[in-house]
Amino acid sequence: MNPDTDPELSVVIPMYNEEEVLPLLVDRLRPTLEATGATYEVVAVDDGSTDLTPALLQRMHRDWDAVRVVRLRANAGHQAAISAGLVSARGDYVVTIDADLQDPPEVIGEMLSLARTDGLDVVYGVRNDRSTDTVFKRVTARAFYSLIRRMSGTSAQSDAGDFRLMSRATVDAINELPEHNRVLRFIVPALGFPSGTVEYRREERAAGVSKYPLLKMLKLSVDSLTGFSMAPLRLATLLGIGGGVLAVLLGIFAVVESVMGKVVAGWTSTVVIVAAVGAAQLLCLGLLGEYIGRMYTQMQGRPTYFIAYDSLAAPARRGPTD
Ligand code: UDP
Ligand code: MG
């Protein structure tokens, strides 16, 4: 491989404390990448590992000249590690793959040839069999993806994770996004590039234990939800409207009761005032939420569209946010 030219393929691998799995990974990945016939680089992103991963990566870098190591100072999380790898990757196509061999490296060749023959920008790895995941993970994942799809209008598939191939144009578009806490599996479909899928069987983790404890999964869920939906911000507005209706009904009831002389003096006005003020406050909060939501989407800085083709100019892909 000529180090002066960009490779045809980059393989970005985020890893956090993966000392057990690294030797197995090299044994499977290297022959697979050689077999594609493409020039390639491996971008190993060490997400602040505290075990032997950094030392093993140094050795890997020495023994295999296609390997580049990017080390983050502290554990930044799976999505951030992938993002760092995407910035560093130079290939015409970039594949992101987990280190634990749950995503079979052999599928990379299939993704690359599909992208080339069909002229696709994105090829998603889709799990056709999740039997290696726990029932808890399968049920929560399915419910969660359908919730996000409904709230955000993205077309993300429930069985597509972060094993995918992306063209240079796609990776450049992602790298230009200024937003933090991004969840790539929802961002990529939202960008709208021509895409296809390759099915694969999700294997068991080859060695070691999951680096995704419940707390990290929860963060991913919150990031996905708040990154793609204003619905939580609208909660106050909805409660305010509900509270307003309730205040009116309560008011009518209280007036009737007081006319019929059934209540203590002062009760009517107290009930109506408390209900009305509560509703007004919630509505005002909701109003603030609407403006905060607008500021938030503006700050996320996502392109609102991509031009696929413009007959006036040469075919272009980027929107006006260049
Ligand atoms: N990972 C990472 N940083 C983290 C957690 C995980 O880079 O903070 C990597 C991990 O090394 C692996 C991938 O992300 O390559 C997926 O993690 P894992 O396999 O532990 O998740 P699971 O498959 O259990 O959901
Ligand atoms: Mg895994």
Automatic annotation (TrEMBL):
It comes from the Bacteria. Pfam families: Glycos_transf_2 (PF00535). Residues 10-171 form the Glycosyltransferase 2-like domain. Keywords: Glycosyltransferase, Membrane, Transferase, Transmembrane, Transmembrane helix. Gene3D superfamilies: Spore Coat Polysaccharide Biosynthesis Protein SpsA, Chain A. InterPro entries: Glyco_trans_2-like, Glycosyltransferase_2, Nucleotide-diphossugar_trans. Its main location: membrane. The keyword Transferase applies. It is found in: Membrane. It is a multi-pass membrane protein. One of its GO terms (cellular component) is plasma membrane. One of its GO terms (molecular function) is glycosyltransferase activity. The chain crosses the membrane at residues 235-255, 267-292. Belongs to the glycosyltransferase 2 family. This is Dolichol-phosphate mannosyltransferase. It comes from Lapillicoccus jejuensis.
